[in-house]
Amino acid sequence: MTAPAPRREQPEGERLQKVLARVGFGSRRLCEELVADGRVTVNGTLAELGRRVDVETDQVEVDGVPVGVLPGLVYYLLNKPSGVVTTASDPSGRPTIVQLVPSEPRVFAVGRLDVATEGLILLTNDGELAQRVAHPSHGVDKEYLAEVHGVPSPAAIRRLREGVELEDGVTSPAKVASLSPGLLRITIHEGRNRQVRRMCEAVGHPVVRLVRTRIGPISDRSLKPGSWRELEQSEVLALARAARPR
Ligand code: URA
Hints:
Layout: E1 14-15, H1 16-22, H2 28-36, E2 40-42, E3 45-46, E4 52-53, E5 60-62, E6 65-67, E7 75-80, E8 108-109, E9 118-124, H3 127-134, E10 142-148, H4 154-162, E11 165-166, E12 169-170, E13 175-180, E14 183-188, H5 195-202, E15 207-215, E16 228-230, H6 233-242
Parallel strand pairs: 9-15
Antiparallel strand pairs: 1-4, 2-3, 2-5, 5-6, 7-9, 7-16, 8-9, 10-14, 10-15, 11-12, 13-14
Helix pairs in contact: 1-2
The structure holds uracil.
Uracil (URA) is lined by residues 113-114, 117, 194-197, 210.
């Protein structure tokens, strides 16, 4: 009787360059170069060519930035119109942002905008990135255009910049520019409930209209209200970089 042939070990997982190519880092050839150039780590260890990864459990980083490698991750940028709610469903039947983007795969909003606030909001099924972007300590700043009642004085603008006493504490320093009488550009990195509205109200200039124009590195002046688009891979990377734990 002949002995059974020894079983060859099946290497587990997908090849790293294939995974990187799938999530948008370029051709497999380019991704091989990324790996060969020492720009990719897996679970904190420099990856070598031929490395296989388990996309469910391995943590892949390119240039020190964690990248989502699970198949099927989507990232949408939506220009939310006024009157649309950020929650997935609304008991009073108002339209919701998830109705404005594809229903499959299921996505959720990164942070929230008030029903009356317009402008850019991200939706994704990448929970890890969403959490990092929404977390105030990671410093992804958000920029708003606020049309306010009256014309804020230099002293009011200084108060907005330095921090305003709200019922849930003093706000962190903000960037505030007066673009024209009654029109402010306000950049904050906290994400408290109705923060910009409450800040403006606290200095005597309630908001008439509020539009979010930028989320960290992401902006888009040509996206019409109610429209959405997928983020480019370079934008996803820039966002991941901006939301990198410090
Ligand atoms: N600040 C607000 O007051 N409202 C928003 O929707 C976002 C920021």
